[in-house]
Design goal:
CATH architecture: 3-Layer(aba) Sandwich
Number of helices: 15
Helix content: 25-40%
Number of strands: 9
Oligomer: single chain
Radius of gyration: 20 Å
Largest sheet: 9 strands, mixed
Shape: globular
CATH class: Alpha Beta
Length: 410
């Protein structure tokens, strides 16, 4: 199988990123948590952590991370309701724990009496192995979030339920973690019988109103896949020096609020909320994210952003390969639509007014398309952004307490 040759890192961009970080973080304030793995963080804060490996039907080896209570807790061996958490694009299981026991959702759920499982999608930091392929192989990266939905989620859910001996679990997802669920629930509806309820944070299905500068740029390039891959990476999402320069021109103006983070892909895509972001948390986050993604994932999202065209039409559709190959693969010129009316699991949507990815109007549209929406809940803070669902200073009181309260209904 062919080996891929990646560009050498652009040293000037690395220097720029370091300078930007120093504007917000004292040089001596680098936190040791930035270098710890998810389970090392869990163990550091005195929780019982477990590593589980799962092999998907197409050979990807995924890691699951489990929290079963605090160390020396008397109820650590008691059967508890299961909370399964899936992170968003370019994030891993660490997204739920890097902010510490008081604000990390994994810890909060564990303290509330849940058996907590953290998923890692293929291609991310903890799930980069395959039974026969290497990450240097083109074939390894031939997946979108569609495959995560129809392959990764079923494998992880089956393992969790088999390990615990339970029949159902709660599903909590952020961003792409919600997209994965919507794919699974529509394409493999039998798995809905294994879900008690689903809680969608910054839900992403319809993307016609996305305001992220990076996603808008990629949407304009969807007609030129060659150009797009030249900018953001051939198979793995690894923006080239040339691509970074294009992105910088869009949002790295000296007077832009996003300027201090313009060298970081995570903030380029999602935006930044200065008031709710804990600056001391930044070096820890940058030690864990971006955690990896395929170029095809980015292209698929970009196709959803490009609404109104003949192929996408602003709908939540499968990957668009072009008219001819669509006809061969799907039997139609247009990719199939994910029929969200098939979803009968109660779905609770949680959204922010200042979200660059999950725009309010797109969330409203999603709510009308779901077969059994449980509710739609705006986070009561006007500037709440896409990353605030994970790392806002007041995320527990603004969001997590509400979710935990709703979970008691089931």
């Amino acid at each position: 199988m062919p080996n891929l040759v990646f560009d050498q890192p652009d040293i000037s961009l690395i220097d720029h990123q370091i300078s930007a970080i120093k504007k917000f973080v004292e040089p001596q304030a680098v936190h040791p948590d930035a270098k710890l793995s998810t389970l090392e963080l869990v163990n550091k804060y005195n929780y019982n952590g477990q590593l589980h490996e799962v092999i998907t039907s197409d050979g990807y080896i995924l890691e699951l991370h489990r929290l079963i209570g605090r160390v020396n807790s008397s109820d650590s061996k008691v059967q508890k309701p299961i909370a399964f958490l899936m992170p968003g694009l370019m994030c891993s299981s660490s997204a739920w724990v890097v902010s510490g026991p008081e604000k990390g959702l994994a810890y909060i759920l564990s303290d509330a009496g849940y058996d907590v499982w953290l998923g890692n999608a293929r291609g991310t930091l903890y799930s980069r192995k395959h039974v026969s392929l290497s990450t240097f192989d083109k074939e390894y990266w031939d997946f979108s979030w569609h495959e995560t939905g129809i392959r990764d989620l079923p494998a992880m859910i089956d393992h969790i339920l088999e390990t615990t001996g339970q029949e159902k679990l709660f599903y909590l997802g952020h961003s792409q973690g919600t997209t994965n669920f919507f794919v699974m629930a529509t394409e493999m509806p039998e798995y809905q019988n294994k879900i008690q309820a689903m809680f969608a944070m910054a839900p992403v299905a319809y993307c016609g109103k996305v305001s992220s500068a990076l996603m808008q740029l990629l949407a304009r390039l969807t007609n030129s896949i060659t150009t797009m891959m030249k900018l953001i990476g051939l198979y793995e999402f690894e923006p080239t020096g040339e691509g970074m320069k294009v992105f910088q021109e869009l949002i790295c103006r000296e007077d832009a609020i996003t300027q201090p983070f313009c060298s970081n892909m995570l903030f380029l895509i999602t935006g930044f909320d200065k008031e709710q972001f804990n600056n001391t948390l930044l070096p820890i986050i940058l030690g864990h994210a971006p955690a990896g993604a395929s170029t095809k994932q980015m292209v698929h999202f970009a196709q959803l952003v490009k609404s109104g065209g003949f192929i996408t039409s602003g709908e939540f559709r499968q990957f668009d390969y072009g008219l001819l190959y669509n006809k061969i693969k799907y039997g139609s010129f247009r990719p199939p639509i994910y029929d969200l009316k098939k979803i009968h699991v109660p779905v609770s949507l949680h959204y922010g007014s200042n979200d660059w990815i999950a725009d309010v109007k797109d969330v409203d549209k999603l709510y009308t398309k779901l077969g059994n929406p449980f509710g739609k809940f705006r986070v009561p803070y006007d500037k709440f952004n896409h990353l605030d669902f994970l790392w806002a200073k007041d995320v527990k009181s603004l969001l997590y307490d509400k979710i935990l309260s709703l979970m008691t209904h089931f």
